[in-house]
Amino acid sequence: MSGLDEIAKVDPEIAQVVRDELNRLRHKIELIASENFPSRAVLEAAGTVLTNKYAEGYPGHRWYGGCEYVDVAEELAIARAKALFGAEHTNVQPHAGAQANLATYFCALEPGDTILGMDKSAGGHLTHGTPANISGVLYDAHFYCPNRETEMLDYEEIAAIARKCRPRMIIAGGSSYPRDIDFAALRAVADEVGAMLMVDMAHFAGLVAGKVHSDPVPHAEFVTTTTHKTLRGPRGGMILCRERFARELDHAVFPGTQGGPLMHIIAAKAVALLEASRPEFAEYARQIVRNSRALAEALRDRGLRIVSGGTDTHLLLVDLRPLGLTGDEVEKALDDVKITANKNNVPFDDKPPAVTSGVRFGTPAVTTRGMREEEMVEIADLVALVVRNMGSPDVMSRVRGRVEELVAGFPLYPEL
Ligand SMILES: *Cc1c(COP(=O)(O)O)cnc(C)c1O
To answer: Distances from the Cα of 259 to the Cαs of 99, 239, 262, in angstroms?
Structure first.
């Protein structure tokens, strides 16, 4: 692998870890919905001397000298994010999605304020008020779930909960909700109860950029995101907000919740945002959704139950209860045949998060690799074989062979 010569000399053990990880990615089918393969340009930017620079503060107003070049990188990232998402203000410094959310809460809320987010076990996120997270400790967290029958958000139900708990902030978005979200409906609920609206588009930011998902920016005071999921950038976070919160939000990121920004990662975010503004990226986003729909349909044709009956996004959830299986055992069985996915609670799951009754599949990574609908049908075939023949060494070995053949046709990082 190029670029590892020096690591190999200094630290052969870590060089081996990197080689092993690249091999793992090349030889397995990556279906974890939150993972992706950023371009070599993004990886290169993240591996530069920009990591050395202390740049506390913001472009033009730093606490350290020598920031003239990293200022350019951050200004480019900000300008590109604002243009791509049509945002009034952008902060590109959050180290990750969790930090973007924490800074937003610190900007908009007082400790003890009421927040209303989607229940984690029904698709929400840890940082939306769960007791284990600081958001659940600092704020009085209430939750909504998708409707029991449709397994989709029911905006009347959410409005009824909001009228009762009177939140200061309503939080939308999650990690395993497979459907589009009606942000205008949530705005109306927020307005009715006098709440702010925050949309966490960590998972679907790339689909918003590619215009294949409803756009939260016109409807929400705050939009937070990661940059490494469908957006296909480096691991990191970002916040978009209304101009009237600009100063306070920047203050809530630094010095409120972070120290020095990661300038190499901000440069890599700028590269990814440039890539995401190109027509090829919009086509990529469209293909992610076509693949996700093809995978959901093919799994359904093979008798698997898809939560909410399908998907509008890059991800789908399979309910394993009708098969009498748990997410944990299916995750392990799939890993055994070189298909990487994760166990996931389904709405109203009676199993704990370490076991779960579901498995989540996402198509961002396989789509980056160049796979299309035809390959999704093949993958559905393999998944169905695994779940219907759990523990059969013959079937597992046959599936493993087909996975090897399939991935061989889609080289990953061939230059590395
Ligand atoms: C992934 C995710 C996050 C957190 O991102 P990290 O970068 O892992 O901190 C926040 N919110 C949602 C909805 C997510 O899916």
So the answer is: 12, 16, 9
pLDDT band at 2 (very low <50, low <70, confident <90, very high): low
Residues 328-341: what's their mean pLDDT?
Answer: 97
pLDDT digits 0-9 by tens, 266-304: 999 999 999 999 999 999 999 999 999 999 999 999 999
Structural domains of the chain, count: 2
Q: How far is the CA of 348 from the centre of ligand 1 (A)?
A: 22
Active-site residue, selected from the candidate residues 35, 56, 140, 373: 56
Whole domain around residue 352: which residue ranges? Answer: 279-408
What average pLDDT does the segment 8-16 reach?
96
Residue identifier of the C-alpha nearest atom 13 of ligand 1: 174
Asked if residue 303 and residue 248 are part of one domain, the reply reads no
Q: Is 127 in the pocket of ligand 1 (CB under 6 A)?
A: yes
Q: Which of 283, 289, 299 is nearest to 339 (CA)?
A: 299
d(CA 186, ligand 1 centre) in Å = 21
- From residue 181, give the alpha-carbon distance in Å to each of 64, 101, 115, 215: 43, 19, 19, 9
User: Is residue 235 domain-resident?
Assistant: yes
54 is catalytic: yes
